Amino acid sequence: MNVLMIGAGDIAKSHGRAVVKLGGKVIAAFDVNEAGLKRYADEFGCEMLTYDQIEENVPRADYVVLSTPPTKRLDYVEMVLKHHVPLYMEKPIGTSLEDAAKLKEMEQKYDGKIIVGFAHFYRPAFQKMLELVESGELGDPINVFDNRVGPGYGFRGTYFQPSWRTDPKLACGFTIESISHEWNLLTALCGEFETMSANVWCTIDNLPTYDTNFSGTMKIKKGGIATINASWSADLGGNFKGYIGTKGSCFLRGSDMFEFDEVTWKTSDMAQAETLHFNDSYKYNQDGVIFNIHKYFQDCLKNNKPIRTPLDEGIKVLKLSTLALESSREHKEIILDERM
Hints:
Strand order of the largest sheet: 14-13-12-11-7-10-9-8-15
Number of domains: 2
Number of helices: 10
């Protein structure tokens, strides 16, 4: 498939390599950083576009990948959807519910086909966990949790590298930018939430509006509770997700923040637990993680299959993050049926 890239930063390189590995080609790319765009074009042998050239090149693509900062999306999205070209949009879809509503209007106006880049949802280890839950063999949820910590952006007051994440003009914070993964994964496992109570905290002195730590407790609509504990302030990394059900339990463990190393499960009728090990590292093989979602998206496009992380999923996740920030700011529990 021929793919056009809008945004040519680090994650866009993994997108490009996935396209090539699948037998396709990056035909053109745009980025506001001219030096970065040149490096991208050199790697993929693609055309370098100016802003004014994006729309005229969109119809040449089988789909477009959008990986600009989430505050800068609306004009690009319309350039793509108005030509009825499918869109891969990196998460989060935006930083405000006003932008989310405009994106939904565009999707409906142009009958758009969009996948939101919740790449961790499509990783083999999580898919195994989800398979066990959806099979019913673990029963209904009692306690579902997601613990993910490590040294992230702003750790110990450093920015690691220049990034939109910590640019005061573009930053949206940990809760909107990264906890989006937790909302996506947990609701896939246990369904929607009834209530939410959350707290956020910042550990970057010179960027006090940028939260780097999150804790949330939710009641699950179908019964049971769910929790999230996440941090970009930890010296040690770890990833531990769990589903405790009425018939069995399943754990996904990782040795670092985004590592998916093993899935262990045991049901009431099993004599002992079973474990599957996965060579599924985001830290050392980001390209491989991104490959999974491109493979899935291309299969959906070629065979007209429904997409499991469509725009509506991105909108739901942004609403949950926005309400979590409100809960923390106003020290209150949010009744989600009234707000979603």
